[in-house]
Amino acid sequence: MSQLPVQIIESHTGGEPTRVVVAGGPDLGSGTLAQRARRLRDEHAWLRGAVCREPRGHDAVVGALMCEPDEPDCACGVIFFNNMSTLNMCVHGTIGLAVTLAHLGKIHPGMHRIDTPVGVVLADLRSDGSVEVTNVASYRQATAVVVEVPGWGSVRGDVAWGGNWFFLIDGQGPPVAIAHLDALSQFARDVRRCLAEQGITGDDAAEIDHIEVFGPPADPAVADSRNFVLCPGNAYDRSPCGTGTSAKLACLHAADKLRSGQVWRQAGILDTVFHATFEPLADGKIIPRVSSRAWVNASSTYFFDPADPFRHGF
Ligand code: PYC
Question: Closest Cα partner for 280 from 307, 249, 308, 301?
Answer without folding.
Answer: 249
